[in-house]
Write a structure and sequence with these properties.
Helix content is 54%, strand content 15%. The chain is of the alpha+beta class. The protein is elongated and about 140 Å long.
Length: 213
């Protein structure tokens, strides 16, 4: 083979190689679409996972709250039945003033002390189970959530304030087991002379005032 033929063939092979190197591969648009689909699926799975985790956490908190409430209010019915006993003990002890107590025979005094001890033990037992006594004072503001107004009478207390407590109330946890029964002041009676303020009344208006009959 002559040198010219060899040179020609080498040139042709070089040209073919250059053309092959210079050719650009066609853009595969379907590949980009596949990536977008996969990314959308990944985002959807991530969203579902976050929702599932949030639902599981809410379920756990709700279950814990229900268990706590069940444990806290399980004695509601029993505690409500015990309130009558607490009221009777308090009424019985309220009949004895200091003079009557001092005049009791020595044989009876231990009985009174036993009733007092029983009352204190009952109150401490109720408190240990989350039942607390609500005993407002005359002059306190009326709270519809804790107090039940049984009547309204003229009194030296400001209008709308508690004038007299007829029966204490009780709460269990954050719920009212029994509202305290109170009498609400309608304000001083017409024509009644205003009483002079006492030193303690300056610090807390409405304190230490008696209910008019």
């Amino acid at each position: 083979m002559s040198e010219d033929n060899k040179t020609g063939q080498a040139g042709e092979m070089q040209n073919e190689a250059d053309e092959a190197l210079n050719e650009t591969a066609p853009v595969d648009e379907t590949a980009d679409d596949g990536v977008d689909v996969l990314q959308a699926q990944l985002d959807d799975l991530r969203d579902r996972l976050l929702r599932a985790v949030a639902d599981a956490e809410n379920t756990r908190k709700r279950a814990a709250r229900e268990v706590k409430e069940t444990r806290e209010y399980a004695v509601t019915g029993f505690a409500r039945d015990m309130l009558d006993i607490a009221d009777n003990l308090e009424r019985a002890l309220g009949l004895l003033d200091d003079g009557a107590r001092n005049s009791l025979p020595d044989a009876v005094k231990p009985l009174v002390e036993g009733v007092e001890m029983t009352q204190r033990r009952l109150q401490s037992t109720l408190e240990r189970h989350g039942v607390k006594r609500v005993a407002p004072e005359p002059g306190d503001a009326l709270d519809p959530n804790l107090h039940q107004a049984a009547a309204q009478i003229p009194a030296d207390q400001p209008k709308g304030r508690i004038a007299h407590v007829m029966q204490p109330g009780y709460v269990i946890g954050e719920r009212t087991l029994r509202a305290a029964m109170v009498v609400v002041s309608a304000g001083p009676a017409e024509g009644a002379a205003p009483s002079a303020p006492k030193p303690q009344d300056t610090a807390r208006p409405g304190s230490g005032l008696d209910v008019e009959a």
